[in-house]
Structures are given as C-alpha cells and as structure tokens.
Write a structure and sequence with these properties.
receptor, 13 helices, mainly beta, 922 residues
Length: 922
C-alpha cells in the first residue's frame, strides 16, 4: 500500500508546461433544441471530462493542457460528436442528433480496447443502458437469455446461471463473470452465483458477453466465455436515482399461495469540480423462492414399471433422506421415508447489495479509484444436492489507477458461508435423530438407519403384534413411529442443530475462503505507430479455509498461487480494410505446468458497415481449488483432489487397483468359493484380473476453436450478425475410483501381488475417489443468426436463432463433461420506447427445444428438460417533469411452469409494477 501511494504522489506531481485552458458551452438536441442534461464531455485520449447541467450547460477546466485537443460529446440515445479545441477560452455550442437505436455500439471486451461492435474479431453481444431500461424481465440479469447464443439456468429467484456454447451447469466454473473488472466468483464455490452479489439495475451501464473461449486475454476461468458488467461512472452519471418494484409470484399454484416479491434500489452520485466523485448504491430484493417439488421416482435400481409413489424403494427427485436404501432378505429393496425439499429449504430468499466508490482525478490522465462491495443473501443452488446458500456473504475491495491507455488494479474477494447447508444431508441427519428400537427407546444416530430397517423387516414379516404382515404401508408406518414432523418444535430443533454442525457429522457448509488478485495492462500503440501493441498480466493467490469440513486445512492452511501475462498485436492492411490481430497468453499455476493460449483473428471491412471475420481461439481451465485439494472422508470412500501435494504420503496414485478390476476380481473369487474352491486357491487363480491403476495427477482442461462470421448494417435499417464455430475439447476433469490395499499391488514379477489380492478379497482395503483428466476428445459446433430491423416511427423488431450440436465421437460418455444444451434456441423482441405521449412497450419471446440434462444431482443420469417458451412484456409511461418512469410488466407472462435443469424448481410467472425516479445533478 505504501508503494502504491508513493506512485500516486509521484504521478500527481507531474506537470505539463502549457497554458491554462477553460472551455464552456451548451449541448442541445437536434430538432427540438431542448437542452441535454447529463451529456458527457471528455477530452479525447485523456480521462479528463465533465457533464452538462439541467440547462445543457457545461464548464471544463482542462488545466495546463497542450493545444489543440479534441473533446468528445456523448449522451444516451444520441450520436457522438467530436469538436476540436484550438483556443484557451473557447465556447462550444452544439446539437446532438437523435439516435433511434444502437446498431453500431462500442465494445471493449473483445480486444480489451474500445472498438466498433461491427468490427469485433470475435462474436460479442451487448446489453446497453437503453436495453436495460426497456427490459421487460424482472431484473436486467434475467434478460441475458434473450441475447444470441446465451443459455440460462434458474436455481432460485436470486440465482440464475448463464453460459454460452455448451457444457452448461448450475455452477459454471468454465465461465468468467467480471463486475468492473473484478472476478465475481465466490472463492469456495469457484463460480459466480449469478447476480446475487453483483450490481443493481440502477447502477449497470452495460453488459458484454463473449461466447466461447476467451482465455487468450482473460486467463483460465474464461474457458467457455466471458460476461463483463460495467457499472456507471459517478463523474458521468450524477444525481439521485430510486427504483421501487413490487410484484407477485406463485400465481395459480396448488402447492403455494400467491406471494409478494419486492425490489428496492437507490443510487446517489456526485462530482466536485470534476476532480473528485463518489457514488453510493443500496438494493434489496426479497420474496418467496420457487419450490422444487418434482417427486418423480428416480431409483435406477428398480425397473421403471415398478417405480412410483407405491414403490417401497421410492427415491423421489426432490425428497431428501429417502436415498438411504437396503435390500432386506424376504422383503426386497426398501428406502427410508424422506422429507420434501419445501420442509428443509429456506424459501424466504433475499439479496442485499451495498456499494460505494470514490474516484479522484490526480491529473488530466490519471485517476485513482477505490470501490467496496458488500453482498449478503439467501439462494437455492442445485449441485450434487440442493444447497441453501443461507445468509451467504461476499465482500470485495478494489483499488485501481487508470489512464487513457493503461490501468493497474488490485482487489480482494472474501466469502463467509454463514448458515449455508446441504438439504440432502439435512434430511438424512434429521432422519437419524428419532428412530426407536423395538422396545420404543430412541437409538443413537449411528444405529438409526439399521434400526429403522430392522423395525420395517419385523413389521413386514408379521413379527410385531397388531401390525399386518406383508404390507409395505403398515411396515413403513411402524418403522416411522416417532418421526419428527415438519413444523414441530422437535423437527425445527433437529434441523437447526444439523445446519450449524459442519463436516461429516452435520449438514452445514463452512467456508471463510478468499483470494487476492492484481492485474494491469498498457497500450503501447500510440508510441509504436507501425502497429498496435497491448500488454498485460495478472497475479492471483487463493487462501482457502473450511476448518477441516472440506479440505485438510485445520492446521495445514491451503494457498494456491497463479499468474499470467499476455501480448496482443494488431495491424491494418490494404487501405485499412483488413485488420489482423494476434495475441498470446502464458499462465502458470504453482501446481501445474504452464499453458500457452494463442488467438489469431482477421476482420475484413468491405465498408465500415460490412465486416467479415475469422478467428482461431484457444482456451484452458485450471482445476478449481476444490478439484485440487478436497480431502473428505465420507465413510466408505475418501474424496481426494488431484494436486500432488494433496495426496502426499498416502501412496494412492502409486499403489492402487482400478475399481472395475477389483469388482470383477471380487465376483470371480466369490463364485469360485461358492463352487467349493478353497479361498486361497480362488484368490490365486483370479488375482491376475486385478489391474494396477494408472491415474494421472490433475491438469488443466484444453479447448481449440475456429469461428467465422459476418456483421453488418444494411441500408442503415437492418443489422445482420451471422457466425459459425467449431470447438474441440480434451482433458476434461473427471473422477475415478481406486482401491488401495496396504501391501504392494504388484509383486517382483510385475503381476498382481498375492498379499494385496487377499486384502481385496477380504475387503481389507480403502476406496478413494480421485480427481484426474480424461484423454478422450470431443467436439461441438454451432451456427447463430441475429437480425435487428428499424421500423418506422421508432419501432424495433429483432430476433436470433442458434443451432448447437455435440459430437461425442469415440469418447467414453462417462469421461466427458455433459453438454446440457438444447439443439435449437430462438429469441424475438418487439418494442418502441415512445409510441405516443411518453408511452412505450417491449416484448421478448424465448423458445428452446427439448434435451436431456445430466448432472451430479441425479447421479449423472439423464433427466428430460422439455421444450418451452417464455414471454416477457412491459408497458411504461415516462413522466419527464417528475423524472420518473412507471412500468407495468411480467416475466413469463403466461405463467408456464418450466424447469431449466433437472432437479431445479419449476419457475412460473412474475407480475410487477415499478417506479423509477432518476434526477441528474447540475
């Protein structure tokens, strides 16, 4: 910090010897001649600037700046204008032309420098300030699914996960989400929890999405794409803004009454003398979450025809505790009685976001920024179980120095899981607190499951007086005697005790993990002239702490260091019609070999409005901290991360048999002994069935992708965006099970050791689930088309369609991350911001085809996601004198209940009314 402050002091001491410049002027709207309040005036290639007051007037003190220079004037909904300043006291009077819609936006994420979206070398989508204001969905984040090629999965009202180009999950560690350049992932989960801890609608200026590999510029997390959220600069967006949104959901449901949904947000920003500015944000969303109540029997060990509510071995999708099973001789397969998710999950969800930022312009080309974000909330998350992220807290601190051609940024991300828990484990633990023995005494939790099955067996076989024999219903009723019923004091006490008990003895999830990150970049282009050159790099350190509940970190604290750097060069040829760009990045994690990720692209501009592009991109993903260092003994098996240091001294990767060979060996020995062969002879004859495992330590996943596309504007009315991509993937991270005896697995002859084989036969072994990689190669390809057409009188009609295909080839499906992507998805939108007298509207329609969802929640077995369509709509009225917009809208207006991932809740309609007050200062 001392060094950082010294740099600020030295840079602030620099003075350019030139005359004092103070310019003033007025900005109005062409045609109406109305003053434009809040228009931005910036000095080109500097960070110096100001905004207009309510009369459209401005004054800019440029200090000792060399003449001549150029100012850039911008305002939302108007064309940009540049004006040359040639005198020290120049007066400017200008009019900005109205811009009906943004067909040629400026984007930053594609090359990390500003450029026209039409000339981006890769596919990129943008949600503008205007689009956010006109969005009919309940929040701006819900609207992302309407962008071309974007997929969305809803686990909770407060948690939606987005993805691009396949391999979708409910917790996407292959997709990078940035908020003002800060990685928004939680350190323990290793993925962003949607917008739970992000930005409020009032403070979001724009959202950019790069579909597909972006590792060449953004590092390992951007394996499958990038989402970059940019919030509003307090120098440019000043004043008080307040949003009050009230809605309802659970409309027309038989399992829930209609519930209220509320979203409040406030933003205030102020600049002083165009040198110092601050902003404050507060938002709070609360409501009743969607209910996961799919009770389909998913017990794969029972024939499909025998499954259902009357199956004694019923394992319902959203009932937990019923996974505990036993095959009782003379009775059959029986599962314990579970609890519905609605009795275990906290459906009273909320999202609190607090944000503050201070910005100081040290000189005309140097600005210092400090920003603090505090997020706290409750959300439901579908992973290997349904998790309740209850009162989860995420905090970030950001300190940044930036100029017109560079920045250096440092930030920290800290989490506290608080009262979070695993609902599946919770159901199982509550089920172990009340089981009685045959004399009516409550047994210990360790004996509860076995005793419950003993009671069931006794009742079913007629060994209990007064209980009918051979009746599964009466046997279950007897076994369930004393069961804690939801809503009772005993149930609530058992639930609370398990939630606050962490590790294997409870359902609680504990993590106080954090990471620190520093990154920066410098644009050398204006010094080199011959070609463009951009350089940058980053350093990150993870510090994990779960107090032994997930990692072996009670005394052995886990830290992970990684760093990366990149170079990007660009050159225009053939009268600037062809732009070639090449970039390469090198990343090194302390636990893995370094990875090079190059990217090459070319854009050919027939005219500025018609552009063809082609690119070769690469991506890689480092294993997450969990992939590397999980060390969890769950009784019959130990789950072990794949970093070499995590298994040091355990001899697991070196001395184990494959699980498949151990199972085959065990079956053969059992059959031989059953046929009368002496055990020692049976073991000796079959020991060569055992196969020594050859599991490699974990390493990064890899991707290579090609893309071609066209983006252009026809007759200044029609925007066309067409692209095709093909991606190949290797080294997918997976789990494999191995069996470890204490004796060496191989003898001196290189064949399975007799002593080790004996241990396997006698089950005197340990089982480990190891993280490693698959060598299988798969590919995916897809094509997308987007169209936006400007109709007369301000109407806009747009739409897009995406076709995605996955090619498994000869790969083993068990070794590959599941694709989880519909073959077809389409979107259409139609709207007009001002139909008449301040009234506007917008309608969005989304449709996607059916597909099978694979995930750990259902043991990686397929669950069908049916085809569905969603309509969002809003109408609004602008009240200019009151600086207010009144909006009436609905998400999923026809209230179709649809699930976007198997095991997650079905989402219905949200109907709302909103008032947005936005009063700029000056």
């Amino acid at each position: 910090m001392k060094k950082f402050l010294l740099i600020i002091f030295l840079l602030s001491s620099v003075r350019v010897f030139a005359q004092d410049v103070k310019i003033s002027g007025t900005v109005t709207a062409a045609g109406s001649n109305e003053p434009l309040s809040g228009a931005t005036i910036n000095v080109k290639e500097k960070i110096l600037g100001t905004t207009t007051n309510s009369k459209g007037q401005f004054t800019l003190s440029a200090g000792k700046i060399k003449l001549p220079f150029t100012i850039v004037i911008t305002a939302i909904g108007y064309d940009q204008q540049e004006i040359s300043i040639t005198s020290a006291n120049q007066t400017v009077s200008t009019q900005l032309a109205v811009r009906t819609t943004q067909l040629n936006e400026v984007v930053t994420s594609a090359t990390r420098v500003n450029q026209s979206i039409l000339q981006s070398p890769v596919s990129i989508e943008k949600l503008t300030t205007k689009a956010i204001k006109e969005n009919p969905s309940f929040t701006f984040y819900d609207a992302l699914v309407n962008l071309k090629g974007v997929e969305a999965v809803t686990s909770s009202i407060t948690y939606k996960q987005v993805n691009t180009r396949g391999f979708n999950t409910t917790g996407n560690s292959r997709f990078l989400q940035l908020v003002d350049g800060v990685d928004n992932q939680t350190p323990g989960l290793n993925f962003s929890v949607g917008n739970q801890f992000g930005a409020s609608d009032l403070d979001v200026e724009s959202v950019e999405i790069i579909p597909g590999a972006a590792s060449a510029l953004y590092g390992p997390v951007a394996f499958n794409g990038l989402l970059s959220i940019k919030t509003k600069d307090p120098f440019r967006y000043q004043g008080l803004a307040v949003s009050v949104k009230s809605g309802i959901n659970h409309v027309g449901e038989t399992f829930s009454d209609t519930k209220g949904l509320y979203d409040f947000a406030l933003r205030f920003a102020k600049s002083f003398n165009d040198k110092f500015a601050f902003k404050l944000n507060a938002s709070y969303l609360t409501g009743s979450d969607w209910i996961a109540n799919d009770y389909t029997d998913i017990n794969a060990s029972i024939p499909a025809a025998n499954r259902g509510p009357n199956n004694p071995a019923r394992d319902a999708l959203n009932i937990y505790g019923d996974e505990i099973t036993k095959n009782i001789t003379g009775v059959g397969v029986v599962n314990r009685t579970g609890y519905e998710e609605r009795d275990l999950m906290n459906y009273g969800v909320y999202s609190l976001k607090l944000n503050g930022a201070l910005q100081y312009r040290i000189s005309n080309n140097l600005e210092a920024i400090y920003q603090y974000n505090y997020g706290r909330g409750t959300a439901s998350y579908t992973g290997s179980s349904r998790f309740d992220l209850n009162n989860f807290v995420l905090q970030t601190h950001r300190l940044e120095l930036k100029g017109s051609n560079f920045f250096i940024r440092g930030y920290s991300v800290v989490e506290n899981s608080h009262d979070s828990y695993n609902t599946r484990s919770l159901g199982q633990f509550i089920n172990r607190d009340w089981v009685q023995d045959l004399s009516g005494q409550v047994v210990s939790p360790a004996d509860a499951d076995n005793m419950w099955f003993t009671r069931y067996e006794a009742a079913y076989k007629g060994n209990v007086s007064g209980v009918s024999a051979n009746d599964h219903t009466t046997a279950r009723t007897f076994a369930d005697k004393g069961r804690f019923l939801p809503g009772t004091a005993a149930f609530d006490a058992a639930k609370d005790a398990s939630i606050h008990n962490y590790g294997l003895s409870g359902a609680g999830v504990f993590s106080n993990s954090k990471f620190y990150h520093t990154d920066g970049q410098y644009d050398f282009s204006k010094y080199i002239k011959v070609f463009e050159l951009l350089a940058g790099g980053s350093i990150r350190e993870y510090k994990m702490f779960t107090n032994g509940s997930l990692f072996d970190d009670k005394t052995n604290r886990i830290s992970i260091n990684e760093w990366g750097s990149f170079l990007q060069a660009g050159k225009k040829l053939f009268d600037d019609k062809l732009k070639l760009t090449a970039s390469i990045r090198y990343d090194k994690n302390e636990n893995f070999k370094g990875s090079f990720t190059p990217r090459f692209s070319g854009v050919y501009s027939v005219t500025p409005m018609h552009n063809f592009r082609a690119s070769y991109q690469t991506g890689f993903r480092n294993p997450t901290p969990v992939d590397q260092f999980i060390h969890l003994n769950v009784g019959p098996i130990t789950i072990l991360g794949g970093a070499p240091n995590n298994s040091k001294g355990l001899n697991v990767y070196e001395n184990t048999y494959t699980s498949a060979s151990a199972n085959a060996f065990g079956a053969a020995v059992g059959a031989a002994i059953g046929a009368g062969t002496p055990p020692a002879t049976a073991i000796a004859k079959n020991k060569d069935l055992l196969v020594k495992s050859n599991v490699a330590y974990i390493k990064p996943e890899q991707q290579k992708a090609f893309e071609i596309g066209y983006k252009g504007v026809v007759n200044e009315k029609l925007l066309v965006d067409l692209n095709y991509y093909h991606s190949s993937y290797t080294d997918f991270i997976l789990n494999t099970v191995v069996i470890q005896p204490t004796s060496p697995v191989l003898g001196a002859d290189g064949k399975p050791n007799m002593a080790a084989a004996g241990e396997v036969a006698n089950r005197a072994v340990k089982a480990f689930q190891l993280y490693t990689n698959a060598s299988d190669k798969v590919s995916a390809h897809g094509v997308s088309l987007g169209l936006t057409y400007l109709l007369d009188r301000g109407y806009v009609l747009g739409g897009n369609v995406t076709k995605s295909n996955f090619n498994l080839g000869s790969a083993n499906a068990n070794n590959i991350a599941q694709y989880n992507t519909p073959e077809y998805s389409t979107n259409m939108n139609f709207g007009n911001p001002n139909v008449n007298n301040g009234f506007g509207f917008n309608i969005n329609w989304h449709w996607q085809s059916q597909f099978d969802w694979y995930g750990t929640f259902n043991g990686n077995r397929p669950g069908r996601i049916a085809a569905y369509s969603l309509f969002d709509a809003q109408i609004n009225k602008k009240l200019p004198k009151q600086n207010t917009i009144v909006k009436l809208g609905a998400s999923n207006i026809f209230n179709k209940h649809i699930s976007q991932s198997y095991g997650s809740p079905a989402i219905g309609g949200i109907y709302y009314v909103a008032l947005v007050f936005d009063s700029p200062l000056k």
